[in-house]
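REQUEST FORM: STRUCTURE PREDICTION
Request ID: SP-0412
Submitted by: Lab K.M.
Chain count: 1
Length (residues): 402
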Amino acid sequence: MNRFAVAVIAVIAVLCPLVLADAALPGDLDGNGVIAREELASSVLGHLSGGTALPAASISDLRDAAWIYVHWGGTPRTITDSSGKSLTLTRPLRRIIVMNSETLETMRSLGVGKERIVAVDKYIAQKPEFFPEYAGYPSVGSIWAPDYEKMLSLRPDALFLYASVSRAECDEIERRVTASRPDLPVFRIDCYRPETYLEDAARVAEVFGKEEEGARLASFYTAALARVGSVAASAAPPEVYFETWNDYKTVARGSGYHDKVTMAGGANIFRDNPAEYPEIDPESIIARKPDVVIKLAGSGKYIFGGYSGENSTRFAEVRDTLAGRAGWGSIPAVRDGRVYVLHNAIVGGPQYLIGVTYMARWFHPDRAGELDPESLHRTYLQEFQGLDPGLADPTRFVYPAR
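STATUS: Completed
RESULT:
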């Protein structure tokens, strides 16, 4: 940041009321769509002189003009969201509603503070261990039961929704909200799917002028996934049975969990099933003789562990129950002690790289020493989420933990 920008920000670093974004570019005195250095200086001097010699500007306009000059190069910022829709901003966002936790988590990774957020969805507010700063925050319901009156009463200057997850519900929210507020930017960004996560994170970084932070986050992911890729490519993939939190319900091509098993260097034994999440005949699991079994926890009747750490002793119980299923004694995974329980918190959303690293270590034990998912998890929490790295205790997320 140059000295002029620092000086301008110092001049306007005073308390001022929040204002909604509008179509005009603050500080663009000649209306050419660019805030030039001279225009910003004139606006500051005009404010200091009370408008007696130069055009006066409100302190909120000065604040926004300085921010745009520093972070966006003095021009409006056009962002293409994950749905392909282009939105142009003429002011920084300061009153945001976020309705998907993955995007909020990504914002935190990029250093976007809660002072910009006016409300979240109810599920974010119900995760005090992971989102402690949003405990007790205003909630606007969920994407399945949104509180439209509350949304509009908060006078947001942007709304963030999923792009491809729960698309119909999010389409309806966008339609109804923009019918009342046609000027409201609605960003459709997932921050959920591994194949598009870094692209989505880059979009969020662009919105907030956090490109440097975005590059740092991308480097963290790229390095971690390169280590996984090296290990995964080192040997033939083991045959893997991946079971969701519904007993005998697995995954196939087209599902995110299948992709993560593949990314970790495993071969999903039900990859060719026509349904993405098929229910399986128990005998067919035995017949396919998986080398590794993974059971997903964190939902349904398997709510334990995770960031709350509640009832983590159930990991061992669930694993023993799996291994003791009728006929499973002949399965290579059971015979060789390769049955694992994995919490969804570290395999879904932005934290997928942690769960994938655990799986790669399980799939390729000869290369396990090259992967340290616990350290990766601790680094992510401490350096990107600003949370206690002790929350990464593996006994909360996987079994066996070592």
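NOTES: Residues 235-399 form a domain with the Rossmann fold fold (CATH 3.40.50.1980).
Reviewed by: T.R.
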